Amino acid sequence: MMILTARLPGVSFWLDVEQDPTEKGMRHGVQNSKDVLIYLTTGLIESKYCQMEMRWALEFEKNIILVVETDERHGKPSIEILIEMCPPDLKHIFANNVIIPWYRDPEFRGINVEKIIRARSVKKAGPTVVAESTTKLKFMTRSKSGDSQGGDVFDWTFVYFTVLCGVALPGAGRKTKAWSVAVRIILLTCGCMCMSRIFTTEGPAFWDRSTIVQIVIAHPIIFLFLHVTLTILKSPLIADLLENRIDAPEEATLLRFKTRIGTCLAALLTVSLSFWGWAGYLPAFFDMYYLESASQQRPATLLLFGLAHGFTWILILPLFFGSLFASLLMMFVLQELSFMALLTSFNELSPEFTRSGITATVATNSGLNINELDLYHFQVSFLENWKIYKALQWRASIPFVVFWFLEFGLMSWSLWSLSQGFEAQPSDPRVARLRENWFLRVRLSWFLGSSLWFGAGAWIVALTPFGVSYYAWRLEMQAKQILFTHPGMRHSFLAFLAGFDLNFRVLFLHATVRLLPLYVCILIVNTLGFDADAVRIWRAV
Where does the sequence pass through the membrane (predicted)? Predict the structure, then answer.
């Protein structure tokens, strides 16, 4: 206790023989402790008071640390005899906890102390032991007290924006989940309604079929992004990640800032693109051509057509863009969390990583005294977290793979459009419609700026997977800067990490820095192809 007190300043200790050795006092001591260290010596199990303290530790779900004496002069026990003598209800303590040997030699004692410190506040998860986060990450918390730990990591703007856009976060209530289902239904319903516009060419709302097809196909794509995101959030992988595998307070604070900035940008884009789209569509749907169709002896269905599409567009546009940006923002957060789990694995190497974080530890430029057992524990933890990292990457890849498949397919039309040049085409029927209705010109500018296939929407979605390359680069740079007192350990450490690819590689989509120019060229061709078509029309107008 004296050694741990010196090693952990500010941490309080309770020792029964020095404070209150009564049964009531011992129960109170165990109940109010965070960790219970049981020092294994001969005769331990024969003590009814030690048995009571062990049972209280189990009753109050305390973290148990087992330390065994190794000197026969001081009561070195036989673990087999201890387990044999142990009551049946206590035997699993030995099976579920690693036993740390205690050496009195000062050269080895430092290692024992570090292992005890590292075993503090651990949470058992199946056969593995994973450090419990001092900043347990939660998206949302619903408690009677109103206390929300999720706000410590995820900014409230992020939570409210994602919920409003139909992303039901873990911990969401029944109403939020129902709204999430409703948003997906609305997206598919509106996609079907937009398809009906292909066959309704009468009236000022119709401009051309190609833009309608863009909108129709965009609806299931956004639905797919939203559905995949919600499926991932409900998976046991996320629960395991948040509860057991992340202990990176420095990164958690940074993530809170990133989510706030990302949410503000997503909200700004959603609002601005929605108003822009409303200006291009609502005047058309609420045009007198439709509203006065009955008095002008036109089909009564035109009135229903205009009102239904007009009110639907008022509702759908914020959901259309909001759901897309909320899904992309959530995928960014999931990528950050899986990377934080990888960084948490470094805590197995040295307590310095736990206390200061990898960035601060690397900045000290001091060598770390790491042995083979520490490296082994790091390798086991890193391998498990890397598997989660890649599993989440594969699950999130489905909408991106579908999107890029369609982008490849659009290249043939874009190349044809570019081959037509930029000269005016007065004979194009769209020219006359643009001359007659100002809102159609606004609509064309809206497609140029926001189209999910040729505008800003395409670039945002297409380049999102390439952001993963940042994590691969950062991990490689920081790993190379870690100094070891034993050069052989550094070589083994770097050789181990070199075998893990963090880049986004799924099927034909290899989002790496080396291939980025190729994908950018595809986006440029598609964007210029649509722009060339618009320029030909504008010049004719």
Answer: 153-169, 181-200, 212-233, 265-291, 311-334, 396-416, 452-473, 517-538
Q: How many Cβ atoms from other residues are within 10 Å of residue 532's Cβ? A: 17
Domain around 88: 1-121
DSSP 368: B
Q: Tell me what pLDDT residue 245 has.
A: 82
Report the number of distinct structural domains present in the chain. Answer: 2
Distance of alpha carbon 515 from its chain centroid, rounded?
A: 24
In 10 A of CB 387, how many CB atoms?
11
In 3D space, the residue among 355, 351, 354, 345 whose CA is nearest the CA of residue 378 turns out to be 345
The predicted structure's pLDDT at residue 402 = 95
Q: Which residue has the tokens 């296939």?
A: 453
For the chain, which residues score pLDDT lower than 70? 107, 121-154, 171
Same domain, 103 and 219: no
Domain contains 527: yes
| Whole-number Cα distances in Å, 459 to 13, 223, 280, 291, 314 | 57, 18, 22, 38, 25
Which of 121, 139, 168 is where one domain is finished? 121
Question: Is residue 138 situated within a structural domain?
Answer: no
For residue 468, give both structure tokens. 């993963």
Kindly report the pTM of this predicted structure: 0.70
403 and 505 both lie in a single domain: yes
> How far apart are the C-alpha atoms of 247 and 270, rounded to whole Å?
34
* pLDDT for position 138: 53
Model pLDDT, residue 79: 85
